[in-house]
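Researcher: Here's a chain I'd like modeled. Treat it as a single chain, no partners, no ligands.
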Amino acid sequence: MSHFVEAPLNVDLREDFTILAWAFCRDRSQWRSIISFESPQVSTSLLTLTLPPSHKPSIPHVAYMTGARPSDFGTLQGQMEVPMNVWFHVAAVFKAGVVTSTLELYVNGEEGGSMRVEDRWIFNAKDISVVLGSSTINNNPAWQWSGSMTDVYVYQASMTKEQIAGLMAEGSLPRVRSVPLGLAQFDASPETSEGMSPPGAITPSLWQSNPTPFIFSGGVSK
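Model: Modeled as a single isolated chain. Structure tokens:
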């Protein structure tokens, strides 16, 4: 089983972007990370989309950095719970503004909370990579996912509620116009041998009609 999948990503965090994923959570004995943006410039994830442990409601959270210091961070707690042991769709949309930026959450196509972002944007560090199934705290992997995920997208544009709902209904983004950085999808490939991760290569505007889900152990005993 994979512990996490990582690949470089050319994304500008000062501009609009959208994160989309189908996920299945099997265990919430601790915080679980669906996706995160990482950089060697910071000791904690630039941005991470997570679910809290089981003693809290299963509401998605987004934590983000506004600078390189550990104290430069903000959080958004959503307003809608996601089901356990059932596939759900989650989206995080960042809308950059001249004076105020906003961060929005969607659960199964419905609005699930929003907030204004401190300092107008997320810290746009160098050498950004995107990680599925893990976050970073004090330079160490943390909050590893337990369950599965598929159809994970990072898009350098802010998608509307209608576009997100259309993606859920159609399983792809055929009518969303690509921007210069394009659409990035992780092509979920089966593990080649015990303990090895899928390659996690990013390919622009590629769609698989029946992708194989990533499966994450998250430290849970089998």
